[in-house]
Amino acid sequence: MSKAGDTAKAESEGASASQTSTLTSLKSTISSQILSSNMSKAGATPKTESEGASASQIRTLTSLQSTISSLELINSLRRKRDLMSLLCSYPLDMRVIFDDFISKPYCESKLPLKLEGLLPKEIIRDAENGDRSGSNFIFGDANLDFIPEAILDMAADLAVHQLMETLISICKSKNPKHAKCIRLSTRSDVEKRTVMEKVTAALNDKHHSLDILNSFHGHLTIDATGYPTSEAEKELKQHICQLLQLSTIKYDDILCTLQIEDEMSRSRYLVILVDRDGEEIVDPQKVGLYGTLLTGVLVLITTDSPSSQQAKEGGLKDGLVNLEIRTKEHLLPWVVFCDTAGKEFVYSSDAILTTAVRIVEECRSHLHAILLVAKWLKNHQDVRMWELALHKLQFTNPSHDVINFHGLNSIMINTFLNLIWDGMNKTQQNCLLSCSGIPKIRDGIVDHELMNHWMSSLFVDAGETEKNLRQLVENSIFLQFDGVGGRYIWLPEETYQMLEWIYTLYPLFIEKSNLGLTEPPNTDKWHNAVRIELAGNKISELPESPDCLQLKVLMLHRNADLTKIPSSFFYHMPLLCILNLSYTSVRELPCSLFFLEQLRELYLKGCECFMKLPPEIGNLEKLEKLDLDETQITHLPKEVQKLTNIQSLTLCFYEYHVKKNMPYSCSMIIPSGVLSKLNRLEHLCIGVNPDDARWNKNMQVILPEILGLECLQTLSIYIPQLELLKLIPARIFELDFRFIVGCHMQRIISSIPPATDVEFKQSDCSLKFVKREGVTDEIKMLLRHSKALFLDRHFTLKSLTEFEMKNLEQLRVCILAECKEMQTIGGGGDLDDNIDMLPHLLFLSIFQMKNLRSIWEGSTPPHCLFGMLQSLSLQSCPKLVTLFSLDFLGNLSLLKKLIVKDCPKLSTLISHESSKRNAHAFLPKLSKLLLLHLPELSSISNGLQIGPGLKEIAFYDCPKLHSLSRKELVSKELTAIKGETNWWKSLEGRTPNFNLIFSPINEEADLMTQLGICDDDGIDNGPGDSVGKPSQPTGIATCVSNSPTRRGKYRRRRISKTWEVETSYLTEDGYAWRKYGQKSLFNNKYLRHYYRCTHKYDQGCLATKHVQRIGEDPPLYKTVYSGQHTCRRRP
Fold first, then answer.
1. Cis amide leading into 1114 (omega within 30)
2. pLDDT at residue 789 is higher than 90
3. The pTM is what?
């Protein structure tokens, strides 16, 4: 065989096992589709007659039209079958193209060929239409002025290779009957004899002999060229009988035919029949080689010349041919190359033509490699470029080790690495490398989904993304096809695997978070990285000046041991867009950071050692987001006004002076005129220390500037003076605002559980009204647009009705704390029956209300009152006597959680009068009920049925509750009852079912942890509380000072994240702690011990506590908790 033939055999890269399987499935599917199409297109008789035509004429016409339509469909299927069989024999994995064809039943509208960009449009169009005439034009001599001899010989080799692969697939098929006749058509009688020699040589090859010939009982090669006319058919039959070693009677033609048919029906034969030369052709049916060939295979090698086509009417019909292989169609690699590179350039000189032939031979029928090379050479007339391309195809790239590409087509490796990869710009290389993380791109991905991936992961803008995708498609690196939902982008398997390997050498994304690393990974792999994540480790030092020319995202947050960044660290990161240094111990920013011209986002949240924002911050003119929450900066430099592109700004200011008359380091927290320059600002969050006397004056200056920001969408701010509310225009109320209004001072420890505080902070449009008297019109207006209200220490308010209920209609969350004059939540005055009462409220928490007597007071409450309420919590209400009346109880049909704690006068949840009426079960949605520290509680519901869906109930310190009544607890879904062991033993009327679901409370362990409500909203969990996720930025932060450090500076902590517990013994709180220090205090003989969560580094939990003994007889311990657990609670 020729070089091309040797290559076709050697490159069983040409048809892998998966391709062979695909080929077998393809042929089986198409054969059944053609059969069903023949049956379904038999012709239908219309039910109506046209004017002027008889019924018989109509039926004849309809039958004719149906027959024509049937033939067109069958021809289309045959054409597609032959083309896809041809493509399956080539090295490129075509599964993505054939999936729909193989898996779906035949339908003209559902069988497009997904070959756009891979083959010339004319070939695709003709295959869709089932037309071979166009293909004759495309593949024929008239289209390509002169086809080099080497290409013709290569086409013959490829046709024989396709035949061998087809025979192998038939031998391996579970259905050996699906293809029993293959016609191999050549261009001429001369080529026919050449192909016969190649087929004989291929079958004699040891590899093919094992795979093919051993699967048959016998193998016959019948050369009919020695029997030139149909008159010699008797002699041909005699010759076949001799080959089959059958006894024959001379001149008995009928007996000879019967013997051949009998032998063929009993044994499986591979028959190679070479047709006669000229116009006379052999009919296999007449010589007994087809009709009874049940499990064998007949290969008819014939010619495809016009004369033989006319004579075929007497030969083997197209309908009996299961597959047609044409040497002419195996000119496809040459046609694709010429069509892509430009035929006029290929044939422009003998030198280029000779080189082009060698290139196509070198590509060994790999269509994708041919496409890539042709696109690279398109419109080039310089023969040196063509010779360079050939050279690159023949030699391995020295910068890549081919051993790492084991199993991939070597020519594709050379084509991609030598011609394509090295010639792409860095952005395109990164786009391709990022595809290695999208496995489904091997089967096709919608183009806009791929572009979105690039934009989000590589920070490439939409215009550049679209441009890169278009170029990659135009250069045939990506292939594309139309599908459901749009245009699909397909990356061939070989290219995908090469990108995977390149990615291991030059990763785009280095993700090493939460691994406990004490030093950064090797910087050798940093230079190609686009994103590096090293968060949550124990890194304390960074390299001096790493080479990161492509880096766009650097995540270093939660490395608490990182105190300093080398001054030159950022010099070689010109493209850095996002930098996260949150919750590190950095004290200052290195000078190299301020040369990051592309920096868009800078996060310094929780950097408690960071005290000064340098003026050089103004150099970062492209900065869009700056987060300084929970830092210790004292003022904002005026250079911030240069950040005209900033869209989100989170600030938190702290200023303390040890002595009363000691001056502030800076008279203004935010200089005048700074905020007004930030015209694009959309999100502004300012937190201050409420003890900072500068803020009152500063607020009067900057508030008009803030209100003039036209793009503002979110505003979080502390407004100490009610008079300032008069300056706020109505349009501000349409924003997502978070306001603290009032005198927010002198609060060392919050009485509000952290989880409740988080519920409030996560709400949109929230108002925290603090330490005031009376209700102004401005507050009412603000309430009218609020969805969350935190009323903290109001001195005169007796009921929410004083706000006017119409102003509370939008509330979803309501928290009431330490309002000493409040006696009831609603009622107690003249109410408008036409106004809904808190119709959208979902969450209500009440704390430390020393004069609260009821939730509703007065006449029957409106039906809509609390109609949407899902969570109700009451804590520390010493005068609360009645919780619900029967009339009020009917409003709580959606209540899911009810927690009542530390209400010493409460004897039952429902007033005594309501017990006279017992119609049906109330609180139908209630699933959790907690009753804690209720010393007078003697009945849960005073005989009423409640909670038919109740799942969990808990009691603690309810000494007068002597029984659990089945009349009250009617739930059949109850799965848990919790309480003290001694109380349970003394309980009257315990049922066996109750005993099965009871679990005792360990009185030495943390109560709320055992009750499983540390994540509950509105529950005072005390120690060990966790909301299950990190808290949101507080924004309107208020801060207090604790004890000074050795340097005389004051550490600041957020009020809302700190609470204390005093106990007579040290208790477990359900979390794992690690001691990290201790110190002695003035006038106290006991040391203070400091602890942090054990999961600070592996899970990023920032919760801390300190414990100190404060009493000796009896012993007393004070534990102060700070921060919220974001780790998983230990079992």
1. yes
2. yes
3. 0.70
